[in-house]
Structures are given as C-alpha cells and as structure tokens.
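Memo to structure team: turn this sequence into structure tokens by end of day. - J.P.
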Amino acid sequence: MVAPRSASLSRLLLLGVLSVMAGCTHEQGRDIVQQLGDGKPSELFQTSVDRMATLSMHDNLDSLYLLMNKLYQRNPNQWKQSGYLDAATAEKQIRLAIEQRQPLPQLGQRRDLAALSYALDPAFRGDRVGAFIYAIGSMLVTAHGGRTEFYITDAIDPLFVNNAARNIEKATWMLSQRQDANGVLLLFSNEISEAGSNLSFAVEFGKIVARLDLLAQMLDERYRRIGLNYAQSLLLMNFLPVQ
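Reply from structure team:
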C-alpha cells in the first residue's frame, strides 16, 4: 500500500505528465490519458520489471487459490479437519493468512519450507489441503522479499525466485507420490485411469513455475545489465549520471 505522502507525490507526478502532454498532438495525448486512466497512481513508482513482478505474484496466488479449491473438491474430507464451517470459509481464511503473513493455527509457527515439509508428512493430522496451499503461498511471498506488490525501492533476489520454482516442482511431484501407511495417497490431485485423465493440477502448477522462471530471468538480466553498464562506463571513461 502506498503511504498518503507517496500518493500525493504520485498525483503531482501525474499532473506533471499531463502538462508535458500539452506539447503532444491531440490524438497522442488522448491515447496517453487513456493508458494512465487504466492504471493506478502508484504505478508511477514501478519500473516495468516491478510491474511484471506484481502481476506475476497476483497471478500465481490466483492459481494457488484455484488449486486449493480443486483440491478441496477432490479431497472433501480435508476442510472438515480445519475447524471451519465449510470449504469456502477455509479458503478465505487461508488466503488471508498467506497475504497478511499470519501463521496458520494447525501449523503452529511453521512457514515456508518448514510448513511444506510438515504438510507433506504422513504423520500430519489436520487439513492437509489448507496446510499445503498455505505453505506454498507463504514460500512464494518470502521468496519475493515478503511483499506482494513491488516498487522502485524494492529488491527481489532472482536466486530465491528460481529456488521457489524448483521447490514447487518438487512439491508437485511429492503431492502425486506421497502415501500413508495403508498405501493411500495423502491427497488426490491428478488422475490417469481407464475412465479418463485429469492433469489440471499439473498444468496449473506448471503455470506458476513458468511465471517464476520468467521473472527470475528478467531480474537476473536487469541486474546483469546494471553491471554491464557500469563496466562500459569504466571502459569508455564516462562519468556516471547523478540525476
């Protein structure tokens, strides 16, 4: 969330942009006004990579919540162990816990990888769907520096984003393989049988991994370009700009 002072500054910047547009043609000015009107003032404090990281995070969380809904449908006995009245209430509370970085009662103080390992442990007793989704969601937020929206002053480590993608790949495989003492899958997800196939879980997890990989590559390239630009300035004996 942008602070009131930042919001005021963004309005001033927006007015400045509009004043510059006075020198544009009428058609150009109309196009720019429409583009600015479609966005939020806070976007003036985002680079293109910041904006992409924000959209990617929102899309990944939406994919995760879709997977949670599908897992509850495939495993209707799970939400009943969460202590909530119904699956919809369980989903809402888990979303809040992820986005507000609150602990999930059934996981104690576990987050991220500790929560993921616990949720996939056959000895775990509780709402495994909620615990699994919360664990991945909290890991995603942590890998992005503890934020879900990003601005010029924020830094995201591409290594952590890449690691999160690899962790999700492993968790997806574990989800399809882990069984209890009786040889029954801990959670039912993908299905391949004579009656038909349902690989929608793998597809949605694949979308999350793909977004993370793309973001990691863009972040790595941005930081690499900063280093290259600095090296070029030294090679050409150019002074670096200060404003």
